[in-house]
Amino acid sequence: MKMLVLLKQTFDTEEKVVIAGGEIQEENVEWIINPYDEYAVEEAIRLKEAHGGEVVLLSAGPDRVESALRKALAMGADRAILIHDLDRKADESLIAQALGEVVKRENPDLLLAGNLSVDNGAGQVAVRVAELLGYPHIAAVTQVEVEGNLLRAVRDVEGDEERVEGTLPLLITAQQGLNEPRYTSLPGIMKAKKKPLERISIQELGLSSSTLLTEVVEVALPPKRDAGKILTGDLTEQVKELVQLLHTEAKVI
User: Fewest CB atoms less than 10 Å from the CB: which of 15, 25, 75, 116?
Assistant: First the structure.
């Protein structure tokens, strides 16, 4: 079974976001594999270990993305493809078109991706690729079982579960809880340095970085939150104080 994983490199979740000149600053930032994409990589490797086949990674971004691809190769993926020259301002539509062209060429049995990325949280690119290629899509998957051409999945539906079946090829997006991604071993890191990593330009895919459907009007941090207030006294006193605060400060009653 051939599996292709869409992978994005994102800020480390511990990083502080800094905005200057209307753009998020990327200098001196620690980069990681988007955590939801790491679940997708781990699941693809587990399926390969169970059923055989190949795991291919696909990403779009600048040269620094190679470090994320090498880490996923060290986990056990077989090869990687990087669309290396997409403009930083490329929107989800253009990225999905570029990735879709490569997916079409690779023709995988199963397409995997994270449910969303932790930087912009849009969750659009993978489902756009599926839509472009006519793949069925199962989102927020927490369990996967493949039997022949049949895939059974359990998906998270806001705290509850839904069981879904589909026929390959299709796309699944990984939700937290799907698995526990493995640590990379030293032999795995050494092997990853020699695994194939193909670079493709946007022009080779017949696309242009200037073809955008989205205009970013402004980039801003969320408004600063006021500190919380801890009520004291017994329960009756706390309720009285809460009602007073809702009336005099919050002015909601």
Answer: 25
The residues, ordered by sequence, that sit 6+ positions from 151 with a Cβ below 8 Å of its Cβ are 110, 138, 144, 145, 165, 166, 167, 168, 170, 172
111 within 8 A of 169, measured Cβ to Cβ: yes
213-248 core/surface letters (b: 16 or more CB in 10 A; e: else): eeeeeeeeeeeeeeeeeeeeeeeeeeeeeeeeeeee
What's the pLDDT tens digit per position in 64-90? 999 999 999 999 999 999 999 888 788
DSSP of 115-135: SS-TTT----HHHHHHHHHT-
Please give the backbone phi and psi of residue 164, each rounded to the nearest 5 degrees, phi first. Answer: -130, 145
Mapped onto helix, strand or coil, the DSSP state of residue 60 is strand
Tell me the DSSP string of 62-129. -TTHHHHHHHHHHHT--EEEEE----TT--HHHHHHHHHHHHHHH--SEEEEESS-TTT----HHHHH
The pLDDT tens digits for 144-200 are 999 999 999 999 998 899 999 999 999 999 999 999 999 999 999 999 999 999 999
Beta-carbon contacts of 101 under 8 Å, excluding residues fewer than 6 positions away, are: 205, 206, 207
CB 200 within 8 A of CB 98: no
User: What are the beta bridge partners of residue 110?
Assistant: 3, 170
